[in-house]
Amino acid sequence: MDAPAGSHAVLVPVKSFRGAKGRLGRVLAPAARSALARSMAEHVVVASAPAAVAVVHDDAEVGTWAENLGALAIDGPPGDLDAAVDHIARFGSGHSEAIVTSDVRAADRFVEAVDAAAVLVNAS
């Protein structure tokens, strides 16, 4: 996934769709939570075009799903920030890199660790 100079890539961590959105368990059945998680993840992957998109996952179903959407599937724990930063160091543009997360500590670690002209948090 070598990107040409000046282009950008998006790295999307996706957990297993099974058991996803557990906090909604009192209001949504497991199948509905799974469908919601899949729909949300698909929205992120599709909206990231035309950037090169890689999905970090540890679930074969998610890997196949990502490849079917045209994304690169990277087998690894989706919550592994160090692996994501290593991937950016290897394949990133050096121009702009971004993280989308609700975890403030992870966002701070990302900003500190990534070497790029612009490092963005929750930006579109």
Characterise the protein shown here:
There is one protein chain. This protein has four helices and five strands. The chain has 124 residues and is of the alpha/beta class. The protein starts with 8 loop residues before the first strand and ends with a strand. Mean pLDDT is 86; it is low at 1-6.
How are the secondary structure elements laid out?
Layout: E1 9-13, H1 30-47, E2 52-57, H2 60-68, E3 72-75, H3 81-91, E4 96-99, H4 104-113, E5 118-121
Parallel strand pairs: 1-2, 2-3, 4-5
Strand content: 15-25%
Overall mean pLDDT: 86
What are the segments in which pLDDT stays under 50 over at least 5 consecutive residues?
1-6
Structural class: alpha/beta
The H-and-E topology, N to C, reads as EHEHEHEHE
According to DSSP, the number of beta strands is 5
Structural Rg: 15 Å
What is the overall silhouette? globular
Number of helices: 4
Largest sheet: 3 strands, parallel
Keywords for this entry:
124 residues; 3-stranded parallel sheet; two-stranded parallel sheet; 5 strands
Give a short summary of the structure.
This protein is α/β, with parallel strands linked by helices and 124 residues long.
